[in-house]
Amino acid sequence: MQGLLKLSRAIDWLNAQVGKYAIWLILAATVISALNAIVRKVFNTSSNAFLEVQWYLFAWSFLVAAGFTLLHREHVRIDVINSRLSKGKQVWIDIIGFALFLTPLCLTVLWLSIPVVVQMYQSGEMSGNSGGLIRWPVWVALPVGFLLLMLQGWSELIKRIAFLRGQGPDPMGRLTDKTAEDELIEALRRQAELDAAAAKPQH
């Protein structure tokens, strides 16, 4: 089990590094978008290449950061029922989800997308838009992103099995961390309580 936990830590480190640098792709897309808007307004000209590189960068940032998002448990979750279950049942639900749903999905995407990427690379397929870009670089983001997501799913699976065996920390602990939304809700609730107390007549 210790060997698997070591693998899990290596996967966590990999996706943490990818997530740390993926933010620069969003910055690059934002800068290019702003420059494109300025050039279009000032010089009354534009290029499809500028437009396409923006969604190339967005696609890369969105896909390659999926594993990082799973690492920090920031994917959208419906916890209406799950949050009412015991910790052990929550862990088992995650194990089933990672093993029977996430892994087959990622494998299917890899199986279908890799031949497409290879074909596009070999053919040098270009965008159908005038002045557009070559297509294979953006398609590479699909297998890369789903590979990182699948690896992170395996890492989370290992951590949950270790927890059930008493050989690892609580993998669900991060769910108790307060998000910015949680802090905002709490601040609004406290302000509402203060406003209500101030509105009460003084005796």
From TrEMBL:
Name the membrane topology term.
Answer: Multi-pass membrane protein
Q: Which GO terms describe its molecular function?
A: transmembrane transporter activity
Residues forming the Tripartite ATP-independent periplasmic transporters DctQ component domain are 31-161
Q: Where are the transmembrane segments?
A: 21-43, 55-71, 91-114, 134-151
Q: Where in the cell is it found?
A: Cell inner membrane
- Pfam families this protein is in? DctQ
Give the domain of life.
Answer: Bacteria
- GO CC annotation, single: plasma membrane
Q: Cite the record's note on assembly.
A: The complex comprises the extracytoplasmic solute receptor protein and the two transmembrane proteins.
Task: Give the UniProt family note.
Answer: Belongs to the TRAP transporter small permease family.
Give the protein's biological function.
Answer: Part of the tripartite ATP-independent periplasmic (TRAP) transport system.
Q: What is this protein called?
A: TRAP transporter small permease protein
Name the source organism.
Acidovorax cavernicola
Q: What is the lineage of its organism?
A: Bacteria, Pseudomonadati, Pseudomonadota, Betaproteobacteria, Burkholderiales
